[in-house]
Amino acid sequence: LIVTGVQTCALPICTNRRWATAVAVAAVCLVNLEALRAPFEYRRWRGIPEIYKLLANEPGKVVLAEMPFYPPHAVFENAEYVVNSTAHWRPLMNGYSGYTPATYVDAASLMWYFPDARAFPPMKANGVTHIMVHPRRWGHESSKVIESIANQPDLELIAVDEKTSIRLYRYRPR
Fold first, then answer.
1. Which own/partner pairs from 68-71 qualify as long-range (CB within 8 Å, at least 24 positions apart)?
2. Residue spans of beta strands (DSSP E) within 6-133
3. Of 45, 46, 61, 100, which has the maximum CB count within 10 A?
4. CB–CB of 126/63 below 8 Å?
């Protein structure tokens, strides 16, 4: 809309070549300013954490759920999980694309509460065998989350990544 307005207003002025150039530069600047979404948050990418390689060598069927499991309005937070899954190429409950299916919405409505008991039925129903927990994503609540997970009889700690503190659990529902 801004470009159309600039062009309409500038038509009478643009008989001079200098003015035409100035108007063109101003239009490009205004279009980019209108589309700007700032501030940008950048994080240095340090590669895929080593703990993900354990899943590649895990025998049998593996279905992974990453925690926290984000609600539909924050599904973009799963992007890192999807990138990390390229270390093992096993099925992943979390996803990220331009489309959020109803099955994700239904699962997320309960799995968001992990490690609360209401988070486990969707995992059991979808055949989840392993859970990757990212304690740092819970911020100051991380120690409470880890303590609560330790009290879950269906979860067995397999490994903790030393660099990232990411924890891998085997899930064996009873």
1. 68/112, 68/114, 68/134, 68/137, 68/138, 69/93, 69/94, 69/107, 69/108, 69/111, 69/112, 69/114, 69/119, 70/94, 70/108, 70/112, 71/108, 71/109, 71/112
2. 64-67, 130-133
3. 100
4. yes
Query: How far does Cα 171 stand from its chain's mean position?
Result: 22
Are 113 and 119 in contact by the 8 Å Cβ rule? The answer is: yes
Could you give the CA distance from residue 7 to residue 4 in angstroms, rounded to a whole number?
5
Q: Which of 118, 121, 125, 129 is nearest to 155 (CA)?
A: 129
Read off the pTM: 0.76
Predicted confidence (pLDDT) per residue in 51-86, tens digit:
999 999 999 999 999 999 999 999 999 999 999 999
Asked if 118 contacts 132 with a C-beta cutoff of 8 angstroms, the reply is no
Task: Categorize the per-residue pLDDT at 150 as very low, low, confident or very high, splitting at 50, 70 and 90.
Answer: very high
